[in-house]
Predict the structure.
Amino acid sequence: MGLATQIGQIRSAEVRLAEENAAFLRAMGISMVHLLASPGAGKTTLILRTAETLGRQLRLAVIQGGLSRQIGTPPLSDLDLPTIWIDTGGQPYLDASMIREALEELPIADVDLLLVEEIGTLTSPPKRSLGASLRVVIASLPEGADCPLRYPEPFSVADAVVLNKLDLLPHLEFDLPSFHKAVRRQNSQAPIFELSCRTGKGLKEWSVWLLEQTRSIS
Amino acid sequence: MGLATQIGQIRSAEVRLAEENAAFLRAMGISMVHLLASPGAGKTTLILRTAETLGRQLRLAVIQGGLSRQIGTPPLSDLDLPTIWIDTGGQPYLDASMIREALEELPIADVDLLLVEEIGTLTSPPKRSLGASLRVVIASLPEGADCPLRYPEPFSVADAVVLNKLDLLPHLEFDLPSFHKAVRRQNSQAPIFELSCRTGKGLKEWSVWLLEQTRSIS
């Protein structure tokens, strides 16, 4: 069997698994949100803030991917939420089979919104699916307003774009209109949420959107 | 032929090409420095500043990787240096064959120091070789002091670590000793250069080191 055929078969199996994850989540009325971002863009902090903001309205759970167990205590372990930490053993992205295993471990009957924190990169295979209901890409001001032009794929498939670290605007040369224009070149529809996880600015709009999306599913 | 065998053969061919690149560069007395970093850590700006600082002592050239041509004008095109822009067509890392082609296009007899800007990610295959003399990983303050723990591989193989955006220190919660400790867990030897491409602070130490390394080769 040729290399392309074998890779094709592995991909098909992945696609099937992702579809099964999606069907399972739909049946359970769970919104699974796949969060993609560079290292340091603020995925974990956005999860923390979202849990603070929506914790009374929705039952949240978290799946968090990491390249290795070296960091010791997973960063969300203080959070009083069901959290699964997936150690990918160096693989630079989560896959549908990892998500399936995590779904089996979670108290899934008591979950409305499942946030999945991807390994931090904007270059992992963008079109692969975990079975998530929504894909959200998080950029942050230090990455530059042209980030969506340099790393187009995750922005092109996103259902929403979060621009984090708005509090750093006075300290950086960052042109907000350029960022919006760059996102719109990849994606004509996705809402763009400008926010600061540090100051809380803009978190309400993001949370309202996420709440609406989740309620439309369950 | 099995998948593993075929992947193995592709890898061996890559390793051979990288060794040939390395041998060619050694023979020409050229120092090739492979720069790895997240999006927005400041690879391009570090190249600009390095060119300003060392442009009179060394003949520089640049190879710059990008995922797509969408960004229009490559960011270094204003620089009066031989620059090759490699469009990887979506592949999230440069490879030895791309470097070989670029070496054929560059006026290589007139180059002392060749800076190679990798696609922005800390998760690409870390042990692959392009044939570079030195590997440098660039982190920046917004990525957090625990970045080397979360993305250990590029730090473990680095010959030097640059910590950029030091000017943001007053505006972030970033603990410098924690960062050093995190780097040292991956790498006992690599020098760590704290600098700000924006203010110029720390650039001299980095440039002196790079000059010494390059002179020891040519």
